[in-house]
Amino acid sequence: MTTIYDLAKKTGISKSTISRVVSGNGYVSETKRKIILDAMHEMNYIPNQVAKNLRKKRTNTIGFLTKEYFPLVGEFLNSFTKIAAKHGYSVNVYFTQTADKELKTLRLLTTHALDAVFILTRINSWDTISSYAKFGPISTWHRVNRPNIYSNFIDHYPIYYHVIDHLYKNGHKNIGHVLSSLRNANTRARIRAIDDFNTSHPDSNQDFRLFYHTQTGTGEDAAKKWLATKNRPSSVMFYADFVAAEFISTLRKNGKKVPDDCLVVGSDNSEIAHMMNMPTIDLCFRNQAHNAFIYLYNELNPDRLPYENQNPHWVDAY
Amino acid sequence: MTTIYDLAKKTGISKSTISRVVSGNGYVSETKRKIILDAMHEMNYIPNQVAKNLRKKRTNTIGFLTKEYFPLVGEFLNSFTKIAAKHGYSVNVYFTQTADKELKTLRLLTTHALDAVFILTRINSWDTISSYAKFGPISTWHRVNRPNIYSNFIDHYPIYYHVIDHLYKNGHKNIGHVLSSLRNANTRARIRAIDDFNTSHPDSNQDFRLFYHTQTGTGEDAAKKWLATKNRPSSVMFYADFVAAEFISTLRKNGKKVPDDCLVVGSDNSEIAHMMNMPTIDLCFRNQAHNAFIYLYNELNPDRLPYENQNPHWVDAY
DNA sequence: TTGAAAGCGCTAACAC
DNA sequence: GTGTTAGCGCTTTCAA
Q1: Which of A4, A226, B86, B134 is in the most buried spot, having the most CB atoms within 10 Å?
Q2: A112: alpha, beta or left? (left if phi > 0; alpha if psi -120 to 50)
Q3: Where would I find the HTH cro/C1-type domain in this sequence (chains A, B) (predicted)?
């Protein structure tokens, strides 16, 4: 492996000058630059990233943390990684699984193994997590209110209210809700929307409410609960497309027709929503991925990259 | 940030001895070990991974390369990352997109930024790719026959033949095939299976054959071709669940009934197959992920981890 | 069983 | 413009 030292020996030019042309910082005369460039090609020189990292205390690597895998992880990661790569960052994926392993991953910030961290799904409390922000910027798509964690969140209240209203006007008086965990601020926002709507529309029924901490097996469980319900909602709204999809698939296995027997509404506007022909709510996760990276980049670098606008909206089945 | 040097200064013990207890190599007296351990806790010492990497010329990081995103990427990555994490490796994901960027990623092997590489979807020729194997082990799930690339491939011939036969016996005389690129050895194996079956069953019709290089928009395109066909196959087999799912979804949008109008068979046994209630072929991608990692690990380390057995099989819709 | 010393390959003051 | 020098934090001979 050719090093900068080999290049110096070969050309008779000092390491520092060579470093200058490789990294593009500082002045180097055209004649020397040419000699060095030629030698680089001839000797097939590739700078050692690890040595550079040690010296600069930077790895240009961002950690992407998720507790577990669910289909949206892949789509989100795809968006995040692409924007990161575009700006010279690579992405390390961690399926944290346990609180302990999540902490261990966060600690990589302290050793400069990771420059920054994005959190898709967390395990530890935001207080614990935010205590690592002094070692490197942290961002998430969750709705969290901490001074040192960037949250590119979407307020679910208005769009959720809007969708309930839309369903109501289309004749759905009994609407079910499959929601995420209550520790999630946007779950609480959704509940406020439900309650507020109910108050102004007393003839509507929004009693069917389920809460889940995870996405695995959830749609199936919700479907069983729906099937076991006497006064079944004619429409059910979900906190994730994937869960909604599993719900639909379970209903169909049980001889029900979707959307005739039950109109299912997802959230995310992911691939799977189109696949299942269900209406969904676009909550702009692609922009969120983008903006979450932009924040980290802007914290890490002197220049400023612009944020993208976000516009949550209803997406018809098509 | 506490360094090994700070520890040395504080305890009055040399850096080398401290290094020995941190890394667990070499003899250290119990008394000194205790002093060091205590100091480590007290000062909250976390070894700097980057410095270690530079010194050892190892990063314990494996590159996961895929040309583009499609749903199976996520599921595969999930399996791969988990087994890797279990053995102390983290995984860097690269969506390579272009031949040039793929090469650039491969070059990370030469600088010791990546210890090894797994290739899910490639762009450059295997000859080009394999020339990097001297810098670090490379594995893939593709069927490739190069001495220095580990291929944990499944021969699609027997299972594919078996499934055609199964469909035929269930009354499907006209079977369509949506296949991957012909440069793919297993695509050719599938074609051999089709042709061999046809030779021994002249009354069967297997003329509907489509070939694709990518997974995006493919299912929709195939569906349109199916709809435009006069003598439509009563069953279509696919090279990927995701493509099959898009096919189903497009047929349904066009008023067709699945499986009544067309029995769709996927390949992969991924989440989406269950979601769409379609039969599929389990080609053991989870084991392939496992074994692909095992190979890299075994090349990189003195100890030997065992491989998992693979048993491709038909999976009913359920 | 321990410590001194020599780097891994690169960057960045600083001096000239 | 360019070279000298001093590290980044760690591991690993080698000698004691």
Answers
A1: A226
A2: left
A3: 3-46
Query: Which of B2, B43, B49 is the best mutation test for A, with the most CBs of A within 10 A?
Result: B49
pLDDT of B47 over the 80 cut: yes
pLDDT band, residue A153 (cuts 50/70/90): confident
CATH number, domain of B190, equals 3.40.50.2300
Residues B88 and B137 in one domain: yes
Instruction: Say if A249 falls within a structural domain.
Output: yes
Give how far B231 is from chain A: nearest CA, Å: 26
Residues B268 and B170 in one domain: yes
Q: Are residues A163 and A267 in the same domain?
A: yes
CATH number for the domain harbouring residue A2: 1.10.260.40
Any domain includes A195: yes
Its domain, for residue B8, covers 1-45
Q: Which residues touch strand D (CB under 7 A)?
A: A 12-17, 20, 26-29, 31-32, 51, 54-55, 57; B 1, 3-5, 15-16, 19-20, 22-23, 25-26, 47-48, 51-52, 54-56
- Percent of chain B clearing pLDDT 70 (strictly above): 100
Task: Say if residue B185 is in the same domain as residue B71.
Answer: no
pLDDT of residue A196: 98
Whether residues B143 and B79 share a domain: the answer is yes
Give yes or no: residues A77 and A122 share one domain: yes
Q: Across chain A, what does the average pLDDT equal?
A: 94
Rounded percentage of chain B residues whose pLDDT exceeds 90: 89
Do A246 and A304 have their domain in common?
no
Q: Does pLDDT of B318 surpass 80?
A: no
Residue B111 vs residue A178, higher pLDDT: A178
- Given a cut of 80, is residue A105 above it in pLDDT? yes
Residue A317 is assigned to a structural domain of this protein: no
